[in-house]
Amino acid sequence: MVPTNPRTTDTCRVPEFLARFDPSNVERLRLTGGDLTQQSGRAFLRVFRLMKHLRALTIYRCKQVSHFIPTLDVVDVCSELGELLVIDASADGEMIDVRYLRGMAAARASMLVKLKFVRIICRVKSLQVSALQLKEYVPRVESGLRTALASDEIDSDEEG
Q1: Contact (Cβ atoms closer than 8 angstroms) between residue 156 and residue 141
Q2: pLDDT tens-place string over residues 1-41
Protein backbone atom coordinates (compact mmCIF):
# COMPACT_ATOMS: atom_id res chain seq x y z
CA MET A 1 0.00 0.00 0.00
CA VAL A 2 1.29 3.46 -0.83
CA PRO A 3 0.49 5.79 2.11
CA THR A 4 -0.25 8.93 0.08
CA ASN A 5 -1.50 10.17 -3.20
CA PRO A 6 1.64 11.51 -4.95
CA ARG A 7 -0.01 14.94 -5.34
CA THR A 8 -0.94 15.32 -1.68
CA THR A 9 1.49 15.02 1.20
CA ASP A 10 -0.66 16.01 4.15
CA THR A 11 -3.21 13.21 4.16
CA CYS A 12 -2.76 9.46 4.13
CA ARG A 13 -5.45 7.62 2.18
CA VAL A 14 -4.44 4.03 3.00
CA PRO A 15 -6.44 3.73 6.26
CA GLU A 16 -9.49 5.03 4.45
CA PHE A 17 -9.02 2.41 1.74
CA LEU A 18 -8.38 -0.43 4.21
CA ALA A 19 -11.45 0.49 6.26
CA ARG A 20 -13.62 -0.34 3.23
CA PHE A 21 -12.60 -3.99 3.56
CA ASP A 22 -12.46 -6.37 6.49
CA PRO A 23 -8.88 -5.91 7.75
CA SER A 24 -9.35 -8.30 10.68
CA ASN A 25 -7.54 -11.17 8.90
CA VAL A 26 -4.63 -9.17 7.47
CA GLU A 27 -1.38 -10.83 8.56
CA ARG A 28 1.20 -8.81 6.61
CA LEU A 29 1.12 -5.14 5.63
CA ARG A 30 3.70 -3.21 3.62
CA LEU A 31 3.54 0.58 3.46
CA THR A 32 5.57 1.94 0.56
CA GLY A 33 6.59 5.56 0.01
CA GLY A 34 4.75 8.68 1.05
CA ASP A 35 4.40 10.54 4.33
CA LEU A 36 3.41 8.89 7.58
CA THR A 37 2.44 11.96 9.56
CA GLN A 38 0.92 12.04 13.04
CA GLN A 39 -2.42 12.63 11.33
CA SER A 40 -2.04 9.46 9.27
CA GLY A 41 -0.94 7.63 12.44
CA ARG A 42 -4.25 8.51 14.09
CA ALA A 43 -6.11 7.31 10.99
CA PHE A 44 -4.12 4.06 10.99
CA LEU A 45 -4.90 3.59 14.68
CA ARG A 46 -8.57 2.97 13.87
CA VAL A 47 -7.68 0.39 11.22
CA PHE A 48 -4.91 -1.23 13.29
CA ARG A 49 -7.42 -1.87 16.08
CA LEU A 50 -9.31 -4.07 13.59
CA MET A 51 -6.16 -5.92 12.48
CA LYS A 52 -6.19 -8.56 15.19
CA HIS A 53 -3.92 -10.93 13.22
CA LEU A 54 -1.31 -8.53 11.84
CA ARG A 55 2.01 -10.29 12.38
CA ALA A 56 4.43 -8.33 10.16
CA LEU A 57 4.58 -4.66 9.26
CA THR A 58 7.04 -3.36 6.70
CA ILE A 59 7.62 0.36 6.27
CA TYR A 60 9.51 0.96 3.03
CA ARG A 61 10.98 4.33 2.07
CA CYS A 62 8.39 6.38 3.94
CA LYS A 63 8.89 9.84 5.38
CA GLN A 64 8.11 10.84 8.96
CA VAL A 65 8.27 7.26 10.24
CA SER A 66 9.28 8.54 13.69
CA HIS A 67 5.89 10.25 14.08
CA PHE A 68 4.07 7.13 12.94
CA ILE A 69 5.79 4.58 15.23
CA PRO A 70 3.95 5.60 18.47
CA THR A 71 0.74 4.39 16.78
CA LEU A 72 1.95 0.87 17.57
CA ASP A 73 2.32 1.34 21.33
CA VAL A 74 -1.39 1.46 22.13
CA VAL A 75 -2.64 -1.46 24.22
CA ASP A 76 -5.27 -2.81 21.82
CA VAL A 77 -3.34 -2.39 18.57
CA CYS A 78 -1.87 -5.33 16.65
CA SER A 79 -1.39 -7.60 19.65
CA GLU A 80 0.07 -10.35 17.42
CA LEU A 81 2.59 -8.05 15.72
CA GLY A 82 5.94 -9.74 16.07
CA GLU A 83 7.98 -8.38 13.18
CA LEU A 84 8.72 -4.79 12.23
CA LEU A 85 10.86 -4.06 9.21
CA VAL A 86 11.91 -0.50 8.36
CA ILE A 87 13.64 -0.30 4.98
CA ASP A 88 15.68 2.74 4.01
CA ALA A 89 15.25 4.30 7.42
CA SER A 90 17.39 7.22 6.23
CA ALA A 91 15.69 7.78 2.86
CA ASP A 92 15.58 11.26 1.34
CA GLY A 93 17.87 12.64 4.04
CA GLU A 94 15.29 12.08 6.78
CA MET A 95 16.51 9.64 9.40
CA ILE A 96 14.25 7.69 11.75
CA ASP A 97 14.65 8.60 15.42
CA VAL A 98 15.40 5.37 17.27
CA ARG A 99 14.05 6.89 20.51
CA TYR A 100 10.53 6.52 19.08
CA LEU A 101 11.19 2.87 18.19
CA ARG A 102 12.66 2.22 21.64
CA GLY A 103 9.67 3.87 23.35
CA MET A 104 7.24 1.81 21.28
CA ALA A 105 9.15 -1.42 21.94
CA ALA A 106 9.25 -0.66 25.69
CA ALA A 107 5.52 0.11 25.78
CA ARG A 108 4.65 -3.11 23.93
CA ALA A 109 6.91 -5.14 26.24
CA SER A 110 5.22 -3.66 29.31
CA MET A 111 1.82 -4.64 27.88
CA LEU A 112 3.08 -8.19 27.20
CA VAL A 113 2.70 -7.81 23.41
CA LYS A 114 6.43 -7.75 22.78
CA LEU A 115 7.95 -7.55 19.32
CA LYS A 116 10.10 -10.56 18.47
CA PHE A 117 12.10 -9.09 15.60
CA VAL A 118 13.01 -5.63 14.32
CA ARG A 119 15.12 -5.06 11.24
CA ILE A 120 16.27 -1.60 10.28
CA ILE A 121 17.83 -1.30 6.87
CA CYS A 122 19.97 1.80 6.52
CA ARG A 123 23.32 3.01 5.31
CA VAL A 124 23.99 5.49 8.16
CA LYS A 125 26.44 4.02 10.67
CA SER A 126 25.17 6.06 13.65
CA LEU A 127 21.62 4.82 13.05
CA GLN A 128 22.85 1.24 12.78
CA VAL A 129 24.58 1.56 16.16
CA SER A 130 21.70 3.30 17.93
CA ALA A 131 19.26 0.67 16.63
CA LEU A 132 21.02 -1.85 18.87
CA GLN A 133 19.40 -0.07 21.86
CA LEU A 134 16.23 -1.94 20.93
CA LYS A 135 17.77 -5.21 22.15
CA GLU A 136 16.69 -4.26 25.66
CA TYR A 137 13.06 -4.89 24.61
CA VAL A 138 13.26 -6.93 21.40
CA PRO A 139 15.03 -10.32 21.39
CA ARG A 140 16.23 -10.07 17.78
CA VAL A 141 17.39 -6.80 16.23
CA GLU A 142 19.17 -6.49 12.89
CA SER A 143 20.62 -3.35 11.39
CA GLY A 144 23.53 -2.75 9.11
CA LEU A 145 25.10 -2.26 5.72
CA ARG A 146 24.81 -5.92 4.69
CA THR A 147 21.08 -5.68 5.37
CA ALA A 148 20.93 -2.46 3.33
CA LEU A 149 22.65 -4.11 0.39
CA ALA A 150 20.15 -6.99 0.56
CA SER A 151 17.30 -4.49 0.22
CA ASP A 152 18.85 -3.21 -3.02
CA GLU A 153 18.67 -6.77 -4.39
CA ILE A 154 15.02 -7.03 -3.36
CA ASP A 155 14.27 -3.75 -5.13
CA SER A 156 15.92 -4.84 -8.37
CA ASP A 157 14.04 -8.17 -8.28
CA GLU A 158 10.72 -6.40 -7.88
CA GLU A 159 11.41 -3.96 -10.72
CA GLY A 160 12.59 -6.60 -13.19
Answers
A1: no
A2: 555 544 544 446 777 777 778 888 899 999 888 788 767 77
Inter-residue contact 64 to 91 (CB < 8 Å) = no
Q: What is the pTM of this model?
A: 0.80
Q: With contact defined as beta carbons under 8 Å apart, do 48 and 77 qualify?
A: yes
b/e burial code for range 107-135 (CB count within 10 A of at least 16 → b): bbeeeebebeebbbbbbbeebbebbeebe
Domains of the chain: 14-150 (3.80.10.10)
Calculate the alpha carbon distances from 90 to 78, 128, 143 in Å: 25, 10, 12
The CA distance from 28 to 115, in Å, is: 14
